[in-house]
Design goal:
The protein is an alpha+beta fold and 649 residues long. It folds into four domains: 23-60 and 81-247, no CATH class; 262-406, no CATH class; 427-529, Maltose phosphorylase, domain 3 (Sandwich); 534-647, no CATH class. It contains 17 helices and 23 strands. The protein has a seven-stranded antiparallel sheet.
C-alpha cells in the first residue's frame, strides 16, 4: 500500500465542471484545439511512424548537424525532434481525453481509438514501445537515455493512457502502457544485469505516479522513486552509458549535466539550473514522491529550489527560462524582456510543480505562484479561438512576434491545451476531511469528504470581478474543513462571510488560507470578496532590464499595452505613481475581458525632429493608455506590446 500522512490529491477532471473564463477556454479546445492537434501531428507524418504496416518513413526531421542523406545510426548522439513524436501524440491524446469529459465527440474518439490500435500493434512482445527506436533506428533502444527522450516519450503516453481510461473507460492504451512499464521494471533497477539509469528529459517520474494511483500498483510508484533517487549519483550513469555506446561522455551539445539537472543527487541541489521544462518536470515528480512517501528530505530540497526560482529567476508573468540557447536558465536576475524565451511548456511545468507542492497541504506560497504562472506565462500560449500558439512568451515585442500554427518541435501546443482542458483538477484538492480551493472560477466540484458526497459550487466572474460565492450541497450534515486561498495581494483586504455572518479572515487563517471547519449543512454559503485594484510591481534593482520601470497587475493578471490600442512608441508611456484615476472597460473583441484605461503621461517623439539625441528631455503630454491582460495579447491586430512601462520619477 502507498504510504500515507496528510495528503491532498487533486480532484479528478470529470469531478469539476467549469464556466466563466476557464469554461470558455475549454470550449475552444473542444471545438478546435483537440482536433487541430491531431490534424497537425498527422500532417507532420507522425501517423506513418507508428503504423507498422507502412514502410518506415526514415528520418523526416534530421538531427542537428546531420544531412538528410546520412543514416541516423552514424550520429548516435545527435537529436532530432522526430524522436519526440510519441510525446506529441501522447499529449494530444490526453487533451482529447479531457475534452471528451466536457463535450462528447464520437468522431474525435474514433480517431484516438485508431491511433491507440496502431500503438498496440507496434508494441513488441516484451512490452517495449517507442516508435523512433522500433521504426527508425531499430536495435538502438536504451543506448542513449541522456539525449533521445526515450523515457520522456513513455511518460507522455502513460499520462495519455490514464486520461483516456478515465474519460472513456477504455483500457487498451492503459494496458499497453502497463506492459511497457512492466518491461521497464525488468530493465531498470539495482539488481544484477539491470540499468541504474534515468531519462535525460524528466517526465516519466510524474507519469508513473499517475499510473500507480490509477492502477494501485506499488511497483510503478517505486520505479518513479528509483529514477529520482538515482539521478546525479556517482559513478554517473550518462558517462558509463556513453562509453558503452562508443561515445565520448564529454562530447555533447550542452557539455554539462546541469542542463538536465543530473549534476548532483536531487537532495543536494540548491540552485535551479539548466533546461527549464526538464527542471519543472523533475521537481513535479519529486513533489509527488515526497507526498506519497512522506519524504521530508525531498520536500526540504524542493523548498530551497522553490525559493531560488521565485526570488531570483522568474518573470512577473510566471515565465521562466530567459535564454533560447539552452531553453532555460542563465544567471540570477537575468530577465531580459524582448528576447525572453519563457517557453509556454516551462510555465505549464511550473503550474505542475506548484500544484504538486500542495500535495502535503494548502500553502499560499505555492498556490499564488501556480495562479500567476497559469493566468500569464502559460495561458498566453493559446489563442482565444484555440487555433494558434505561442512557443516563446516575451514581455516586450516590436511587432514581429506572433502565434504559430505549428512548430518544428511542437511540444507547447498540446501542453497548454492539456493543462487548460484539465484545469479543474488544479483548482481543488481533497484529503480525508478537508477540501482546499486553490484557484477561483465559475463552476462546481464534487468529491467525497468525511464519507459524504459534497458539491461545492462557485458563482463568480473571477478574474474580472473579485466577488466569489460558494454554496455547499450535501445530504444531512458532515464535519470537515473548507480552505479558501487568500492571495498575498489580497492580504488584509479580503472579506469573508459565512451564511451572511462576517468571519474575520485572520481568525481562521492557516498558511495563507481561510480554513473553516464545522458541521456543514446543505445550502450553507460562503462569500469571499477579493480586491482587484490595479497595483504596481517593481522589480528588484538587480534586474537591470526593468530599472526605472513598472509592471501593472489586477488580481492575478499581468497587464500590458498593445500598439493596436495605444499606437506606436509604447516606451514613451509613463505610468503615474498614483493609480486611482482609471476606468475599467469590458472588451467585446476579447470575449468580455476587462481592460483598464489609465491616465498617463507620454513623451513626445515629434519634438526631436530628425535628431537621435538632444540635450533636453522629451516633452510630456497627458494621455490615456489602455491596458489589456497579457495572456490575451496578439489576439487582435498585430503590433508592438510592452509589459514593463516607464515609471514616473
Amino acid at each position: 500500500m502507498m504510504k500515507k500522512d496528510r495528503q491532498f490529491r487533486p480532484l479528478p477532471v470529470p469531478s469539476v465542471r467549469l464556466g466563466g473564463l476557464f469554461g470558455e477556454r475549454q470550449d475552444a479546445i473542444c471545438e478546435s484545439t483537440a482536433t487541430i492537434l491531431l490534424d497537425r501531428c498527422i500532417q507532420a507524418g507522425m501517423l506513418k511512424q507508428i503504423d507498422p504496416d507502412e514502410p518506415s518513413p526514415g528520418v523526416v526531421i534530421p538531427p542537428h548537424s546531420m544531412s538528410p542523406t546520412m543514416p541516423a545510426t552514424e550520429h548516435k548522439a545527435m537529436v532530432s525532434t522526430q524522436m519526440f513524436w510519441d510525446s506529441d501524440f501522447g499529449k494530444s491524446i490526453e487533451t482529447a481525453a479531457y475534452s471528451l469529459y466536457r463535450q462528447p465527440n464520437p468522431v474525435l474518439e474514433a480517431r484516438i481509438d485508431a491511433i491507440i490500435d496502431l500503438y498496440e500493434k507496434l508494441q513488441r512482445p516484451d512490452g517495449y514501445l517507442n516508435s523512433w527506436y522500433l521504426r527508425i533506428v531499430p536495435g538502438r533502444e536504451w543506448t542513449n537515455l541522456r539525449d533521445t527522450h526515450e523515457l520522456y516519450c513513455a511518460g507522455h503516453l502513460i499520462e495519455a493512457a490514464v486520461a483516456y481510461f478515465q474519460a472513456t473507460g477504455k483500457r487498451k492504451l492503459l494496458d499497453v502502457m502497463c506492459r511497457y512499464v512492466d518491461h521497464m521494471l525488468a530493465v531498470f533497477g539495482d539488481g544484477a544485469g539491470q540499468r541504474r539509469g534515468y531519462c535525460g528529459h524528466e517526465e516519466i517520474e510524474l507519469a508513473l505516479v499517475k499510473l500507480a494511483r490509477v492502477t494501485g500498483n506499488q511497483q510503478y510508484l517505486d520505479l518513479a522513486k528509483f529514477f529520482i533517487d538515482e539521478r546525479g549519483t556517482e559513478p554517473h550513469y550518462f558517462d558509463s552509458e556513453a562509453r558503452n555506446d562508443g561515445r565520448d561522455p564529454k562530447n555533447f551539445v550542452f557539455g554539462t549535466y546541469e542542463y538536465n539537472q543530473a549534476h548532483l543527487p536531487v537532495r543536494e541541489q540548491t540552485k535551479v539550473v539548466g533546461h527549464a521544462v526538464r527542471a519543472m518536470y523533475l521537481y513535479s515528480g519529486m513533489a509527488d514522491i515526497a507526498t506519497e512517501y512522506s519524504d521530508d528530505s525531498l520536500t526540504a530540497a524542493l523548498d530551497t529550489l522553490w525559493d531560488d526560482l521565485t526570488a531570483k529567476q522568474m518573470y512577473v508573468t510566471g515565465g521562466i527560462g530567459p535564454a533560447a540557447a539552452n531553453e532555460g536558465f542563465t544567471d540570477y536576475y537575468d530577465l531580459p524582456n524582448e528576447s525572453a524565451y519563457a517557453e509556454t511548456c516551462a510555465s505549464v511545468g511550473l503550474v505542475f510543480w506548484a500544484s504538486r507542492m500542495l500535495g502535503r497541504g494548502p500553502n499560499r506560497r505555492y498556490a499564488d505562484i501556480m495562479e500567476q504562472a497559469l493566468y500569464n506565462g502559460a495561458m498566453s500560449g493559446l489563442s482565444l479561438d484555440g487555433k494558434t500558439f505561442f512557443y516563446e512568451n516575451p514581455l516586450e515585442s516590436a511587432g514581429r512576434h506572433h502565434r504559430w500554427t505549428w512548430h518544428r518541435c511542437p511540444c507547447c501546443p498540446p501542453n497548454i491545451a492539456r493543462l487548460l482542458a484539465s484545469v479543474g483538477s488544479y483548482m481543488y484538492a481533497a484529503s480525508a476531511d478537508e477540501i482546499a480551493v486553490h484557484l477561483y472560477g465559475e463552476g462546481s466540484a464534487k468529491t467525497t469528504i468525511a464519507g459524504t458526497i459534497v458539491t461545492l459550487a462557485q458563482e463568480t466572474r473571477y478574474p474580472w470581478d473579485g466577488a466569489i460565492r460558494f454554496t455547499v450541497s450535501l445530504e444531512g450534515t458532515a464535519r470537515f474543513a473548507i480552505s479558501l486561498r487568500i492571495p498575498e495581494w489580497a492580504e488584509g483586504e479580503a472579506k469573508l462571510r459565512l451564511n451572511g455572518e462576517v468571519v474575520e479572515v485572520t481568525a481562521v487563517a492557516a498558511d495563507g488560507y481561510a480554513r473553516i471547519e464545522r458541521d456543514w449543512r446543505n445550502g450553507d454559503r460562503i462569500d469571499l470578496d477579493l480586491p482587484l485594484a490595479l497595483r504596481p510591481q517593481y522589480a528588484n534593482p538587480k534586474v537591470r532590464q526593468d530599472a526605472g520601470r513598472v509592471a501593472l497587475m489586477r488580481g492575478p493578471l499581468v497587464y500590458c499595452v498593445e500598439e493596436t490600442d495605444n499606437g506606436a512608441d509604447l516606451s514613451a508611456i509613463i505610468v503615474p505613481n498614483e493609480l486611482k484615476e482609471r476606468q475599467e472597460v469590458a472588451l467585446a473583441d476579447l470575449n468580455g475581458a476587462v481592460a483598464v484605461d489609465l491616465p498617463v503621461k507620454r513623451e513626445e517623439t515629434s519634438g526631436f525632429g530628425g535628431a537621435l539625441y538632444l540635450a533636453r528631455r522629451a516633452e510630456r503630454t497627458s494621455a490615456t493608455a489602455r491596458l489589456v491582460p497579457y495572456h490575451l495579447w496578439d489576439n487582435r491586430a498585430p503590433g508592438a506590446m510592452l509589459v514593463w512601462l516607464q515609471a514616473e520619477k
